[in-house]
User: What shape does this take?
Amino acid sequence: MLKYLLKRIGQTILIVILVSVLTFFLVDLIPGDVVLNVAGKDDIDEAEYWKIYYELNLDKSTPERFVLWLKGVLKLDFGTSYIYHKPVWDLIKTNIPPTLYLSLLATLISVPIGVFFGIISAVNRKKKSDTIITLTANICNCLPQFWIGLLLTFLLAVKLKWLPTMGFGWPSKVGLAKHIKYIIMPLICLSLGGIAGFTRQTRSSMLEVIRQDYIRTARSKGLSKRRVNFKHMMKNGLIPILTILGGRISRMIGGSMIIENLFAIPGMGVLTRNSIMAKDLPTIQAIVMITTAFSCIAFLLTDIAYMIVDPRISLAESEE
Amino acid sequence: MSEKDLLYIKDIDTTFRSGDGKVTKVLDGVSINLHRGEIIGLVGESGSGKSMTMLSALQLLPANGSTPMGSVVLDDDGKNLLDYPPDSNAMRKVRGGRIGMVFQEPMTSLNPVMTVGDQIAETVIEHFGASKAEAKAKAIEMMKKVNIPDAEARYSEYPMQFSGGMRQRIMIAMVLAAEPDILIADEATTALDVTTQALLLEMIRDLSVNNGISVIIVTHNLGIVARYAQRIFVMYAGNVVEVGSGMDIFHDPMHPYTLSLLRAIPRLDDPKDRILVPIEGLPPIPSARPNYCPFYDRCNYAEEMCKHRSKPGITQVGPGHFSCCHLSVDQIRAKTEALGKQELHKRAEKKILDEVCLDVEGVSKRFEIRKGIMKKKVAEFNAIEDITFKLRRGETIGIVGESGCGKTTLARTLMRMYTPNTGTIKMFGTDISHMSEKELKPFHKRMAMVFQDPSSSMNPRMSAGDAVAEPIVVHNIYGSAKEVSDRVNELFRLVGLDPNLKERYPHEFSGGQRQRIGVARALASDPDILILDEPISALDVSIQAQVINLLEDLQSKLGLAYLFIAHDLAVVKHISDRIIVMYLGRIMEISDSDDLYDNPIHPYTRALLSAVPIADPAVEATRKFENIIGEVPSVLNRPKGCPFSNRCSEADERCREECPSLKDVAGHMVACFKR
Assistant: This one.
């Protein structure tokens, strides 16, 4: 078990290093002058040009530059954004919290609701409730987020004027009531697809489990329906759910470019879009590095969760 | 039926609704009674409804099964269990509490993410309201009772850490933990090796005798019921067709189906010239069962009136002996005698020539286990080791052994799907053991293979005719499309199929027909040698005889040499001239097939033969099961010396250190120091 854990951590570190190499060379891969690329514009004066030149250590050899860059990254020093004229980390630092907050809330909403509907629909297979749930989930799964966003804005903000059309503020700044008004629409947009996805996945994996011989065994022991459903079916049926949960968590920090832009939320999605549009290379590098590291950690945690839930994994590994 | 009845299942009707709303009756008035402390057997082919009867009685049907009609009465108290809703407390008290069930698939019947101990303890908590600690103590006690070594330590292990036989023991422990009155073993030993099966069934019998538990053994294996059951219920097409004691069923059967079945299956103690008489046709599919006797269409006792009268009811034909047939006892007896005379037509003529088709000498195949990203070699083992034998034209050599004995590896090595690490394989004098693919081509033509599962070894998108034509085309045997087509027609006729079926796809055929197509495909390149890897194990017993007879006919017609691989010893013995007994990759004994049964020499052969139950209670009464230690180990853990040394009661120091090679003992080739 420990060996497996160490192996997985090793793999994670390896992936992060590989990505860092690619990210670092991102600057060199883009055609044109490195300094001008990093500056994000062509019309800079000579002094500024050499300032950036030395900041990027372009006078040193490539391996040296990489090591210096990586050292900086480890200290969360991703360089300076010449668009915002700020250290990149300061930008990221202010943009992560809204994104993480919203995606975390959305996940916390989607998982229980999705799993709940999934179980209901699996247990009542081929009955009316199942048909309704499955149909709704399929429709919700297909709806594009921006469309839901626009629809909600039109209904709740423009027509009914219940909610502000856009914006974001923490409760400490704008008060709790205002804060909730800000986040309702983004949360619905971010959760709806998740609920639908979890419902569908839970339903299909539960149905898979219902057919298993060990469920018949559990029933043959005279166990109550509750115990069969919750003790025997849930634990097996929810294992595949971990996979999509892990995938969802891994994407949490990247934020949703569409939703954040639609509702003007100052999060990572907006930052990503802006820095791409402005060719703000140091910021792009930082975003790539941070989202990668976060994803890798999320997948590592998923694997650990797998190991805890499903003894077959750690047993199979320990046989090596 | 009588005062002593512990369980009385009466007139059960069970229907299933398929996806398109069609209703199919799978059980058609099944009645079964069980006395206290008795062991009964429920036998029938797949689809006869034997498992369904048990699931119906316990209200364990899948979602598309309706609540069965009829009654299930326990303790003669007049209460019908089927009146209780399936998940009601009263029903659950019976299911699991009074009646426990062990299922067929040991690999999938236990919850993989729950420790075995918890799964046993759960029963105790459910039925006795015990505390966790009490339940654990009881679970460990039960694990000890079913002979699981190290019960305390293994309590918190997961099912995947146990072998198939051990998992079935866990299942039995789980059932016993509730202290039930009745244990149902639904094909509980079918998936296990014969020696493991015998150990488990012996244990079940001991439990029954010592604890007064009544047992219902549900199986397709007539040998098992002959050995263990006091009364036998024979099922066919959703009906019980005959009920009687073991002696009644095997020595004086009265129902034409039972009579035909006994004529169709080979027995381990058969004389050499025994002819199998297959039951022609197939059982009716449940959705199209006739109103008249369901066996009518395959019955060679049938009279015209059978078709015009409704389904026969059960009538008494002797003390405790019942049968469902319109014909009287005398009529049946007279017809049986007449049929017995007809049967005397000679078995296909056998000519073994001196020409050696296949000369295998010291063949070993090593496999490596590689792990990790770098695929580092972590272990290696010989799946087969030092295999030596000669196969002559017209001869059938049977290869038997339990799981891991290497029989399939041997077949694949001979087919050169694997390259042997040592030894030579000479085909008609030419060593093919290291030939390249290209050099092999002419030899592949002369050796073909028939596989086990006729449904998955055929391409579902290829018509039967195309499948058979493929080897002809690959080997460029015939030029024109017309010639190929003629040859395919000829092959179809050869294996007893109508060439008009050529355009059909595999799923449109029955299992037996598919295996005929498999044989036709193997014969397409006009080979001299056929390797048959478990060719009939996926087929029902009444169908097996058809394929066995076909193979024997083809052999005498075409002078083929067969290598017949199977785990069913009776079948192997019936068809083979010589038998190779393998164990963990090595040959233990080679002998003439008759002599092997009459005079087994190697301790493993003896144990193996004694583990196979014979479909005759009179014979069974005189046989003794030779105790064999433990289960077949993984080939990875093969003992250093003789592979059987850790399970052999005669093994000594030398056996554990050195590996014996084959030597001649009383006409057998035997690998044992003690002989």
Summary: Chain A is about 80% helix and 0% strand. The longest strand of chain A covers residues 80-81. Chain A touches chain B through 27 residues (CB under 8 Å).
